[in-house]
Amino acid sequence: MTLAFGINGANVTHNLPFSQACENNKGPILDKLANIFSAPGLVLEIGTGTGQHAVHFAGHLPHLTWQPSDHPQNYQLCLPRLKHAGLANLREPRSLDVCQSDWNLPDTVNGVFSANTAHIMSWPEVERMFEGVAGIVSPGSAFCLYGPFRYDGQHTSASNLNFDQHLRSQNPSMGIRDMIDLIALAERCQLSLDEDIEMPANNRMTVWRRQS
Prior knowledge:
Layout: E1 2-5, E2 11-14, H1 20-36, E3 41-46, H2 52-60, E4 64-70, H3 79-85, E5 94-95, E6 111-115, H4 123-136, E7 142-147, H5 158-170, H6 179-188, E8 191-199, E9 203-210
Parallel strand pairs: 3-4, 3-6, 4-5, 6-7
Antiparallel strand pairs: 1-2, 7-9, 8-9
C-alpha cells in the first residue's frame, strides 16, 4: 500500500503508483505554474507518470484544463489516480510518443509542462519534444521544463553529477542536458528562454516561449 495525499491535505491510503520526488516537488512547482499559467486554457503535460503532478496542479488551478500524456507504454499508469481525483478539469491521459510526426491533439494547446523528462529521453527525443511543442503552441505561449540541468558543461551540485553518471551508466543515451545545447535547439524551433528559475533540490524551472 502507498500513502497518497488528497487536495485538501488529508492522508488517503490507496494502491496507486507513487513517486516520492513528485510528492516533494509538486508544491514548489505549483507556486511557479500559478504565475506562468495564470490565464484560462489547455495545458499539455508531457510525461505524466504517476499522475501526482496532474492531480495536484489541476486541483489548485481550476481555470486550467489539464491534459496528461505519456509514452504509449506508460500513459495508463496515472489513470487510477486521475479517476480517483474525479476533477472536472482533468482529462484522461493520452498516449504520446514525442517522436511521432503528428501529436494528434484534438484542441488548441495554450501551454506545455514537463518534469524530469529531458534527462531520461535520448537527445533525438529531446529534439523532437522541442520541435513538437513549437508546432502546437501559439506565439507567446509557455513551455515549462523542470529538472536538473548543466551550465557550460558544469553541474550545479555534486549530487547532480552523481545522478548524471548513474543515468549514463544505465543508458548512454540518457543524461542531464546542458543549457547551451537546449538554447541552441530552442532557437532552431523558434522558442526562446524566457525564465530560468532556481528550484529546491538543485533543480530548475525553465520557461521557453514560442516566438512570433
